[in-house]
Amino acid sequence: MATPLPDGAAGGVPRPVRRPRIEVSRDDVLDTAEELFGARGYRGTSLQQVAQRCGFSVGAVYLFFANKEDLLAEVIRRRGGRLTELTRVCAGREGSAIDVLVAWVDVVIGFHRQHPGFGQLSARMVAPGGEQEFPRSLGAFAERRDEALAPVVDLVARGQREGSIRAGDPVVLVRLLSALVTAHHGMDPALLGTSVVVDDDDFRAFVRDAFAAAR
What we know:
With 215 residues, the protein is mainly alpha-helical. It is 66% helix and 2% strand.
């Protein structure tokens, strides 16, 4: 008598567990929108282009998102939430604060390279004139960015107390560092294909020299 196969198995090989199609479709839309928003900008991307790239109808996209602005907000929220968590974990590491600060720079650069569409989008949002391309509602994301950087502000304050990070308003220093990292994105061929490239080691050394306490 043949041994009954487990439920959901064929030929003794378990069938892969499939995610619901509606969840897969939503992720497909987010991935595609992230890529297009990064490459073409917000104004240069339409919901029709996103739908066509996914193989959906525009109506199908509206099953998940109210409009293009809502889609952009979800793209930013998805990646931004993960980057915020990575920032919190990194900033909480033990060791010299200046070393941790440089490690955080590596985390941010690596994250944007892992998700180049999001990296390109981030660079567009903070570039000169970027506020004119994106919806005004994204002003709220600037406030959330400051909240997301709060652990780095605390890290800088800790470094000042221990004497490894230079003096100055921690909020101002972190905003300056964030701007430097954004400038690095603009010279990263993995993101924008620029002809002006800065070596990663040189950039780490520059950050360390700029933010370390004077000896």
